[in-house]
């Protein structure tokens, strides 16, 4: 892995660890801070709300700043937030620290994705996105267990000190290894907002919410299904979740390669396969061996979606101000998580079982597959028009060469990945 990409992956690894480890600390925090478990749980949802609401606002406010200084500044803010969390004397200060860290999360993640795609080049944008997302997967597999181990040995404050050291290391690595760029983080507020008028960007955001929402519906209720329907013990489920994490790594790598070859075609196929896997998982859940097989396939296919969805956003805004669109895609993932937990909870509240949750998840992924298929068809139709130029990806050239004047003065944008998807 190139050194600049390593620095970016380490940054995202820090973000993912800080975001996810808090869930395992809730019992300690509830006791030590003298709050209820439900109040402690707001530290999780508060972080997510700050990402969804505050993240795009921070992106707009910093849209004219150069990317590398902004990346370093946001990492410094993230370090400060974790220092404050480690020193927090009470619940209110800890919640403030969590929100402070979350405000840097969305734009920082977006900058890491954009920088990785620029370093890798247009024809490898999917693989570059996959490498960054691996940082998030590693946070789940490695960062969170290590953080919980620190908490077990020295208390929850040690976990935040550990994240502080990790993120400070990432900051120094970015200072030394990530190349400077003459481009700003965006083209100003107007330029950033104008990108959202692009139909392909809006559809990509919708596809993220719907397609990923189906996967997160199943993932949210995966542990109860394995315990209550498949009959695994708590210890066995822990091992299975580790296996799930390994599958997510394989899925991220696979998804990056598929996105480089045929972006919308691969997303359509992956969502179709995921729909079948979720239905099959619901069917074989009572059979432990078959359930393990379905679990592995589910993890691979689900996480293979991430690189393609990220690359679709990056390619759609090629040559224009990309940061807000990418930040919105990250917020869309958080929305998908919330949608998944809400939908699964509603299915259970209506009196249906855990297997029905997976069937409801399949309905969402099928809807996502339909959206992806329509976009794929639209790209292929546009590629056959005389005005379009057959490019490998939308990031191949700056914005101006991407625009061709059609008869009547209408300006048309060719789709990305045209040649590979024919």
Automatic annotation (TrEMBL):
Location(s), subcellular: Cell membrane
Ranges for region Disordered: 384-422
Keyword terms, alphabetized: Cell membrane, Membrane, Transmembrane, Transmembrane helix
UniProt main location, coarse: membrane
InterPro entries per record: MFS (IPR011701), MFS_dom (IPR020846), MFS_Efflux_Transporters (IPR050189), MFS_trans_sf (IPR036259)
TM annotation in the entry: 36-58, 70-93, 99-120, 132-154, 160-191, 203-225, 237-255, 262-283, 289-309, 321-344, 356-374
Domain Major facilitator superfamily (MFS) profile: 4-380
Membrane topology: Multi-pass membrane protein
Low complexity compositional bias, start-end: 389-407
Pfam families in the cross-refs: MFS_1
CDD domains reported in the protein's UniProt record: MFS_NepI_like
Protein name: MFS transporter
Biological source species: Streptomyces xanthochromogenes
């Amino acid at each position: 892995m190139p050194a600049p990409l390593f620095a970016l992956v380490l940054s995202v690894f820090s973000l993912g660890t800080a975001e996810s480890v808090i869930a395992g600390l809730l019992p300690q925090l509830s006791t030590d801070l003298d709050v209820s478990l439900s109040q402690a749980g707001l530290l999780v949802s508060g972080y997510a709300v700050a990402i969804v609401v505050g993240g795009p606002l921070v992106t707009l406010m910093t849209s004219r700043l150069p990317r590398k200084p902004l990346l370093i500044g946001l990492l410094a803010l993230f370090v400060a937030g974790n220092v404050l969390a480690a020193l927090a004397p009470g619940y209110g200060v800890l919640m403030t620290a969590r929100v402070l860290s979350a405000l840097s999360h969305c734009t920082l993640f977006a900058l890491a994705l954009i920088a990785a795609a620029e370093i890798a080049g247009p024809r490898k944008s999917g693989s570059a996105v996959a490498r960054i997302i691996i940082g998030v997967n590693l946070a789940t597999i490695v960062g969170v267990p290590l953080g919980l181990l620190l908490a077990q040995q020295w208390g929850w404050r040690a976990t935040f000190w550990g994240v502080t050291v990790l993120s400070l290391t990432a900051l120094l690595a970015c200072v030394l290894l990530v190349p400077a760029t003459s481009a700003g983080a965006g083209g100003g507020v107007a330029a950033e907002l104008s990108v959202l008028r692009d139909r392909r960007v809006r559809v990509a955001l919708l596809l993220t919410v719907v397609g990923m929402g189906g996967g997160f519906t199943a993932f949210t209720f995966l542990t109860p299904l394995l315990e209550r329907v498949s009959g695994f013990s708590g210890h066995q489920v822990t091992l299975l979740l580790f296996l799930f994490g390994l599958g997510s790594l394989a899925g991220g790598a696979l998804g990056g390669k598929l996105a480089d070859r045929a972006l919308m075609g691969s997303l359509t196929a992956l969502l179709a396969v995921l729909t079948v896997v979720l239905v099959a998982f619901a069917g074989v859940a009572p059979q432990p061996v078959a359930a393990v097989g379905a679990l592995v396939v589910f993890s691979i296919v689900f996480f293979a979606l991430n690189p393609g969805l990220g690359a679709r956003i990056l390619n759609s805004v090629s040559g224009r101000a990309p940061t807000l669109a990418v930040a919105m895609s990250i917020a869309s993932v958080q929305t998908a998580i919330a949608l998944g937990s809400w939908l699964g909870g509603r299915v259970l509240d209506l009196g249906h079982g855990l297997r029905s949750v997976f069937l409801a998840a399949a309905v969402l992924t099928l809807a996502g597959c339909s959206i992806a298929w329509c976009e794929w068809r639209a790209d292929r139709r546009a590629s056959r028009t005389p005005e379009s130029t057959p490019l490998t990806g939308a990031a191949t050239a700056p914005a101006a060469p991407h625009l061709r004047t059609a008869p009547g003065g209408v300006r048309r944008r060719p789709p990305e990945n045209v040649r590979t998807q024919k």
